[in-house]
Amino acid sequence: MTRYAVIGTPISHSKSPLIHRLFAEQTNQDVQYEAIEVQADDFDSFVTDFFAANGGGLNVTVPHKERAHKIAQLLAPNAKLAGAVNTLYLNKENVLCGDNTDGRGLVRDIQNNHEIQIAGKRVLVIGAGGAVRGALVALIDAKPATLTIVNRTLEKAEQLRLIFEIQLAIETSSFEQLDGEFDLVINGTSLGLSGETPPILASHLSPNACCYDMMYGNEDTAFVAWAKNNGAVKALDGLGMLVEQAAESFLLWRGVRPETEPVISKLRNQ
Ligand code: ATR
To answer: In this structure, what DSSP letter does residue 80 have?
Structure first.
């Protein structure tokens, strides 16, 4: 039995132990996965001790993703750019490796589960915080026609443009100056936590627009409700992203990619 865990604070609400238990059952892997509350001051020693005791891998969540990025000795290129790590493991040479599976999870959910092709689409990303940073490399790799980042604080969008504008020109805008219409609109702000929606207009949605909220909830999130009321053809929440990023971590650790669809269904019906 190999031990895995997600560490963060707060952590008691985490669905990751259930997701990984379902993955392990489905793929017949002998793993144990728990959620462990770890405070910032204890983070480095916890990680060191966990791997010294033959731990198989860690997921890292709020507020430790930036610290995990700092202590990883070998970073996947996307994690390096994102400045954040959500998956830690030791490679064969016992080097602590850091990856970020959030963006791959987002893109897989959009493209594989919801059958929305990103290639050639005009994509609007709302927000410029950690959630968006973690997603941009994978979104750019999916080859949208255009990528626009709109954020309350324009400078933060500008900073992301400078970091991520490698293969694709990135537009940035404030909400007030946002112009044009978009085929895929992804909400990466934390506004949903207070039941609010970002101030974008129905006129920013193209006739076939799909909206995606990186957050999820038992009820429609505020942004999903907004999208349904404002003519989006699809209004999707981030539950699938959660399961897909977990599957990407499981793949890194175990070399097997679990089926995500039954796990998403199970969580949806809980
Ligand atoms: P996370 O790591 O979850 O992305 P974050 O780094 O604090 O959290 O980023 C939160 C995002 O939500 C930011 O884009 C933030 O906009 P600012 O960069 O201008 O702060 C956005 N956000 C939070 N509250 C907001 C509000 N009331 N109106 C508009 N945007 C808001």
So the answer is: H
Domain boundaries, the chain: 2-100+241-268, 103-237
Is the bond preceding 17 in cis, omega lying within 30 degrees of 0? no
Q: Is the pTM of this model over 0.85?
A: yes
Mutate to test the pocket of ligand 1, among 124, 156, 189 (most ligand atoms within 8 A of CB): 189
CATH topology of domain 103-237: Rossmann fold (3.40.50)
**pLDDT tens-digit readout, 92-141:** 999 999 999 999 999 999 999 999 999 999 999 999 999 999 999 999 99
Q: Is the CB of 137 under 6 A from ligand 1?
A: no
Calpha distance 240→247 (Å, rounded): 10
Q: Are 215 and 186 in contact (CB under 8 A)?
A: no
Domain 2-100+241-268 in this protein, CATH class: alpha beta
Model confidence pLDDT, tens digit, residues 153-194 = 999 999 999 999 988 999 999 999 999 999 999 999 999 999
